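Methods: holo model generation. Sequences were used as deposited, without trimming of termini or removal of tags, and paired with ligand SMILES retrieved from the corresponding compound records. Each pair was processed once, and we did not select among multiple samples. The sequence and 2-acetamido-2-deoxy-beta-D-glucopyranose SMILES for this entry were:
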Amino acid sequence: MLQQLLLLLLVGNTLASHFYGTMMTYYPKETQVDGSVTVVVRFKTAYDSCQYSNSWICSGNCGSENVTAHEIQNVTNENWCQKEEIMTRVLPNNTGFTLRFSGGNWINNIRNGVVLWGAVTQVELRNRSDTGKANTSPQTTILPSVRVPSNCPRDYSLLAFDPDGDEVKCRYGNSPEECANCNTPSVLTLSPDCTLSFSPTSTSNEGPYAVQLVLEDFPKQNISLTQTNGSQELKTTNQVISKIPLQFVLRDYFWARKP
Ligand SMILES: *[C@@H]1O[C@H](CO)[C@@H](O)[C@H](O)[C@H]1NC(C)=O
Ligand SMILES: *[C@@H]1O[C@H](CO)[C@@H](O)[C@H](O)[C@H]1NC(C)=O
Ligand SMILES: *[C@@H]1O[C@H](CO)[C@@H](O)[C@H](O)[C@H]1NC(C)=O
Ligand SMILES: *[C@@H]1O[C@H](CO)[C@@H](O)[C@H](O)[C@H]1NC(C)=O
Ligand SMILES: *[C@@H]1O[C@H](CO)[C@@H](O)[C@H](O)[C@H]1NC(C)=O
Ligand SMILES: *[C@@H]1O[C@H](CO)[C@@H](O)[C@H](O)[C@H]1NC(C)=O
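and the model returned the structure below.
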């Protein structure tokens, strides 16, 4: 009886509609003489309540999670609770890894029909020929929920910065691991320089939209990446070094509506 109740609670929990988006960035710390690399991964995840927690699944050269993901901050308002967490991994060498996050559900009534979530981070840590260091991902940040008045078309520049001096490009997620359902919001146009143009067509567009972006860094000149064992790979200016997710809810509401 108790077990059934627990099962129901668990099922209810996994199917609850509570997700408000996520983002993740990483930066390398010291490389030891034995070639082991420490990397710090920071991520923010937002839900409609602080009770929910996150589990990103690592694959590749995951090493050991030295300091387990720990919460550094909860930011709350009446609608959402955003957690900021840090994960530190110590890897035996500078081969990279992938972190994936999936589950359900986004908050209710997402206008672009997105229900389940999926997000992925590709961590590259090989030694760059231009900086003599491991790569750092693009840096960005989010608010879990962005409110935009539907009668005001406008452009939003997303913060997108790269400490290695790389070019950061934004695109919509387009594979099952980048977004469980990759429908893009009809009211938005995204340009690769990370400007989101909001151009609603009518008040019938009102409601929340899931915006599921991927940020990638491209070198501004050809570089090579060197593995701990000495093997090298060329990256041209058209090739991605790393990628991170940036996902949030955009709320289109009709501003100045009077009863
Ligand atoms: C964040 O919220 C959770 C759930 O309410 C709580 O257990 C945790 O202690 C909070 N963390 C911080 C850093 O306030
Ligand atoms: C890096 O370490 C992993 C263990 O996580 C090992 O499987 C892999 O062969 C190593 N790669 C190199 C290039 O040494
Ligand atoms: C793990 O973290 C602790 C505390 O931050 C640090 O003292 C220790 O050196 C770390 N271990 C490794 C293998 O980096
Ligand atoms: C990275 O390469 C530079 C030379 O390009 C070298 O000086 C440096 O020691 C290397 N760093 C690591 C961590 O291997
Ligand atoms: C970069 O590398 C590509 C592929 O090897 C090569 O075709 C191109 O000429 C290189 N560009 C520069 C500026 O060296
Ligand atoms: C280094 O490791 C990679 C992947 O583990 C392997 O493909 C490559 O052949 C190795 N290179 C050398 C020089 O050992």
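The chain has a mean pLDDT of 88.
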